[in-house]
Amino acid sequence: MDCFYRSHLAFICIFIWSLALFRTTDSGSITWHEPPPSETVIDTAITSTTETNLTKGSFNEELSCNFSLTADLSFETVSFEFDGVTVASYAKGRYPTVADRFVSRFNVTWVPSKLTLIVFKVTSDDKREYHCRAQGYSSSHGLQAWLRMIKVDVLVQTQITNVTGKTVTEGGNVTLKCLAEGNPTPTVMWTRLSDNRVVTMPLTNIRRQNASVGYRCTANNGVKSPATRDVFLDVQCECYNL
Ligand SMILES: *[C@@H]1O[C@H](CO)[C@@H](O)[C@H](O)[C@H]1NC(C)=O
Ligand SMILES: *[C@@H]1O[C@H](CO)[C@@H](O)[C@H](O)[C@H]1NC(C)=O
Ligand SMILES: *[C@@H]1O[C@H](CO)[C@@H](O)[C@H](O)[C@H]1NC(C)=O
Ligand SMILES: *[C@@H]1O[C@H](CO)[C@@H](O)[C@H](O)[C@H]1NC(C)=O
Ligand SMILES: *[C@@H]1O[C@H](CO)[C@@H](O)[C@H](O)[C@H]1NC(C)=O
Ligand SMILES: *[C@@H]1O[C@H](CO)[C@@H](O)[C@H](O)[C@H]1NC(C)=O
């Protein structure tokens, strides 16, 4: 009797164990395609992470969440969120919608199986962590949700804010400084206008004649076109000191 009872128990244990094994191996998965890189995730507790760039001041820039679910899952919903708030979403059989408070900033489109957030005009405010949440249903697991974090950086075209150091006393040296802003940080280069040659600072032993020679600062960070600013030295006569 005891023996029968034990083997019975063992059978139940094996049955439950195999059921658990069946459940873990049978669960579907999602593959995130866009933004790149592609990544396949089974465990719904894992948040996939990727990055993308938008450019400040650009109109109708797109942020896409393209994914595919395995065949055992039927697609249900997908949404864009940030700070825990839904910005835009699409549910099977409906129209994609933008949440009321965001209609002035975003539009959304859906083509299977890609949700695209359209940013009307990119501002610094769009630099944040967006989440794309996709849900699928399977008869064995019910509704399952996967999350992908999209870190959005907002690139800013280079702007030259000021040029300093152009004043020099005759016979002296001068270091022109070009102050440039942008994201990523721009690199700055100086050239002489007369022959386009690259010059390195400081410029030494400046004479009165040098005042008529212009210099160009070119600042570039690869976002849209570089910025330039031309300056002429302001050579002050030594005789002032006499
Ligand atoms: C989504 O990504 C896949 C894989 O890169 C691609 O084949 C498919 O065309 C994309 N879907 C859309 C709607 O762009
Ligand atoms: C975003 O821009 C930075 C700076 O230009 C660049 O290094 C990075 O590769 C870009 N990232 C993507 C995903 O395009
Ligand atoms: C949003 O996109 C849809 C589909 O492309 C378009 O019909 C609609 O006019 C757009 N809405 C706005 C406010 O741009
Ligand atoms: C530019 O730099 C000069 C010299 O340092 C300074 O006097 C001037 O106020 C600056 N201009 C701006 C707009 O910052
Ligand atoms: C200018 O620079 C040169 C070369 O570096 C140096 O010999 C000279 O003393 C400097 N002149 C002044 C006024 O600082
Ligand atoms: C200043 O002018 C003199 C004479 O024209 C020239 O030889 C010298 O190279 C010039 N210096 C700079 C820094 O342009």
TrEMBL record:
<dbReference type="GO" id="GO:0005886">
    <property type="term" value="C:plasma membrane"/>
</dbReference>
<dbReference type="InterPro" id="IPR013783">
    <property type="entry name" value="Ig-like_fold"/>
</dbReference>
<dbReference type="InterPro" id="IPR003599">
    <property type="entry name" value="Ig_sub"/>
</dbReference>
<feature type="domain" description="Ig-like">
    <location>
        <begin position="158"/>
        <end position="234"/>
    </location>
</feature>
<keyword id="KW-0732">Signal</keyword>
<keyword id="KW-0325">Glycoprotein</keyword>
<feature type="signal peptide">
    <location>
        <begin position="1"/>
        <end position="27"/>
    </location>
</feature>
<dbReference type="InterPro" id="IPR036179">
    <property type="entry name" value="Ig-like_dom_sf"/>
</dbReference>
<dbReference type="InterPro" id="IPR007110">
    <property type="entry name" value="Ig-like_dom"/>
</dbReference>
<dbReference type="InterPro" id="IPR003598">
    <property type="entry name" value="Ig_sub2"/>
</dbReference>
<dbReference type="GO" id="GO:0005911">
    <property type="term" value="C:cell-cell junction"/>
</dbReference>
<dbReference type="Pfam" id="PF13927">
    <property type="entry name" value="Ig_3"/>
</dbReference>
<keyword id="KW-0393">Immunoglobulin domain</keyword>
<dbReference type="GO" id="GO:0098609">
    <property type="term" value="P:cell-cell adhesion"/>
</dbReference>
<protein>
    <submittedName>
        <fullName>IgLON family member 5</fullName>
    </submittedName>
</protein>
<keyword id="KW-0472">Membrane</keyword>
<dbReference type="InterPro" id="IPR051275">
    <property type="entry name" value="Cell_adhesion_signaling"/>
</dbReference>
<keyword id="KW-1015">Disulfide bond</keyword>
<dbReference type="GO" id="GO:0050839">
    <property type="term" value="F:cell adhesion molecule binding"/>
</dbReference>
